[in-house]
């Protein structure tokens, strides 16, 4: 759709030097019931359980067994029960989980009891598609602001939201109570955009640009990289075909993978 118009920014000093990406994030968020923090991997699965629960609620279901919920979420039921124990939810033997109550508990843990206004920066190919996807608003993440620097885009609308110049990020984000910023600019612009969002009080950033963002303590960054996901899939494909060497010093060309593991 559009390309970066040569607005490569000078790197500004940032408040701290902490490179904060999700894979470096120390595990855990407060479970909200005075228990131990909820591990990061569990948080990710809770979001999947919530998607299934929302569907069940829509179907008017009152209860669901751990086996059914686990199967629909693609995990085993022992893991599901352990995940839910982190948030203090336990099912009733022979009955299962109350769908409505479990939904509320998961939503409370994920901080979804109120909507989160989202600002998206970079309304190019990817940003335009994200901005036009109605599913975010349905799940509590309304797109409240769109920003770009391309004069051809500023002033246009996507799904009723006007694209504003990136210069207005601080003012607009503060006015609209933006809590989540999405960075969909080319990599060279991403840090400056991130800095503007942080300066506007945004504490959660979803980064699509292929670069590591440096943020102050207290700001969460999650990086989405579909190519990385495909590389992981590629690894599994290669392993199935036996073209990946067994890892680690114990593995020698003469060992089968099973031998290497069992040592
Ligand atoms: N994570 C993933 O899986 C994934 C997938 C596709 C693309 N991407 C990345 O997403 C980004 C966007 O890709 P695209 O194909 O939409 O590119 P694009 O060129 O179509 O769009 C980028 C937009 O950002 C705008 N922009 C540039 N500098 C800006 C600034 N300082 N402030 C605000 N807006 C600015 C441009 O005007 C343009 O509209 C790229 O970094 C790309 O590598 C990531």
Summarize the structure in words.
It is a single chain. By secondary structure, the chain is α/β, with parallel strands linked by helices. It folds into two domains: 104 residues, Winged helix-like DNA-binding domain superfamily/Winged helix DNA-binding domain (Arc Repressor Mutant, subunit A); 105 residues, 3-Layer(aba) Sandwich (Rossmann fold). It contains ten helices and nine strands. A seven-stranded mixed beta sheet has the order 5-6-4-3-7-8-9, with helices on both faces. A two-stranded antiparallel sheet has the order 1-2. Helix 8 links the parallel strand 7 and strand 8. Helix 1 packs across helix 2. The longest helix is centred in the N-terminal third of the chain and has 19 residues. It binds nicotinamide-adenine-dinucleotide. The site of nicotinamide-adenine-dinucleotide has 32 residues, from helix 5, strand 4 and helix 8. Keywords: Cytoplasm, DNA-binding, NAD, Repressor, Transcription, Transcription regulation. Its main location: cytoplasm. Modulates transcription in response to changes in cellular NADH/NAD(+) redox state. Belongs to the transcriptional regulatory Rex family.
